[in-house]
Amino acid sequence: MTIALLTNYLPPYRTPLYRRLAERHELEVLCFGGGERYVPPWFADLDRQLDEAPFPARRLNGTGAAFAVGRQYETIIAPFAGGAILPAAYAGARRRRRAFILWASVWAQPRSLGHAAALPVTRSIYRNADAVIAYGEHVREFVRQIRGREDDVFVAPQAVEPELFAQSVTPVELAEGPVVLYVGRLVEEKGVGVLLDAWPRVQ
Question: What strands lie across the sheet with 153-155, from one edge to the other?
Fold first, then answer.
């Protein structure tokens, strides 16, 4: 079985997952890049990532190429991210009667104008995909509400670098005063307003 896994970039923390999938299945990773608004420059060097990938990987150039993926592959896995890439890949898979798996990553409906305009299309993909991969139970619950079922929604925990987040710090290593950790992008939808409101209350 040939599988195409569509994604934007090849971050190091996902490399082990993609390598394992490629070893166990006939899988190729197709990268479409993009997202310059929120992707830091050090993360966006797609050409280098593709050159260094220890598994079959190549660039996917636009929606036309996403639509055509169904010609070459029997199963297509595509993420919610990527703008028009998702509906193009889905339409191409359906035209060729290929299996389509949605890789869901949101647990609430995004509220941008673009997402609102695309809502009928994305909801149809959520409902009609052959299966859905969710990276947590909260995403699975969101998908279940849309699909009306969960027997074909599978949780695959988010790939992270555990050694990065599991580092122990002794009290001696901590500086005097409060310790604050914020993990996220400094954009409105990530709750920066709440963070700014809370900051003066830190003792």
Answer: 57-59, 26-31, 2-7, 75-79, 99-104, 131-134, 153-155
